[in-house]
Amino acid sequence: MKKYLFIIFLVLCSCQKFTKKYHEPKLPPISSNASSSNPSIANDPGIFLNKNLPVIKTDQKKVQVALFLPFSGKNKDLGFSLFNSATISLFYNDPNGIIELVLFDSKENPKDSEKAFKEIIDKKIKIVIGPIFSNSVEAIEKLARQHKITVISLSNNQNLINKIDKEGGVFISGILPEMQIEKIVNYAISQGKLNFAIIAPSNQYGKTITELLKRFVRSKQGNFITSEFYDNNSKDLDRVVERVIDSFILPDNLSKVKKDKDLVINDYDRIYPQVIMIPESGKIASKIISSIKKQNKEERDFQILGTSQWDDKSIFDSNLINAWFPAPENEKFSDLENFYYSKYEKFPPRLASIVYDMIGLIAEITNRKQGQTPNLSDFINFKNGDKNGYQGVDGLFRFLPNGLTQRNLAVLKITTSGKAGNWFETIEKPNDSFIEYNKN
Question: CB count, 10 Å around CB of 106?
Fold first, then answer.
């Protein structure tokens, strides 16, 4: 696929509201105030949708940023949606037009990703956003280090940590499962929920989440009661759910003597789950929760937990009401989501906020460096006052020397009692700063 070269050059000098600081919670609307500078901005709702914008010739030297995303194949709609988010971010965060986006197709398999990445190397581009998928990241991480390129991948695969050195390599900007499970376990235990079970898909993701849940529950002196796995096409889901509902452990003093045939164990001696985690998409989670309600003949009180993949309005289902899950605080993403919808008449993928934030961060660093291309250490050492990180749509985040993107997550509750159209209520806010880390 041909690469498209984009220079987003917007004359905004006459409209102060477009020079708002990136971390403001509201995206300023495209208003009639903009029309005096550029009438097409106010009058053409499809301005950001044009994939064949001509290159605007200018003498100003640009900082090139490669968008290394799937622009062909089965994920091309996702790729172009993320491009749309990048252009919106440029519109608000790069009013001086110092960033130039260059699009490269990451394709659908690692070999093609590696070949496309070599084109980025040939163009001498030093900052890359993408790819999305782990196998593509694995295919290019060595090349990134060899050629001193800063790659901000959209993966959340923790096996990709430490693919970095002092001058180049890969950051993992997705929300790692470890961060999510630690956050939700800490919150549940703080609310007196000490006894955990999990119903998970029988795949690597389900097994990873299960092991993380065990580790964090036990490290907080909670009780891990049981885990059950199911196949995607499992016909015995009700039996899986029933086993979890009826599972229990005994207190230490009874478990040591439970082989005694004369020992009478009463129901009140049993420790049943208080929490059931379901690391699954909203649709399948709803089916599991429906089965829990049907099988819960003793009417035990279960708190349902999910993961950040529930942070999507399209998954809303009445069965999920009152469930908790860890995710970035939702208010700023709602602003981005509503603005995106006003332009494209569809909602953006949840990854759109990560791309938006990364463009905003690159613009901020580039401005601080007076137009020079940021290097890897600029990302790691970035500070915003006393925040010790970058305040974006997804809240505070920072890059660590091992390639991890550290985030402070909130705990959200699925509800119908919040703002109109917002199904998520923040029940625990994220921390507003990071502790210092040892760079040595």
Answer: 29
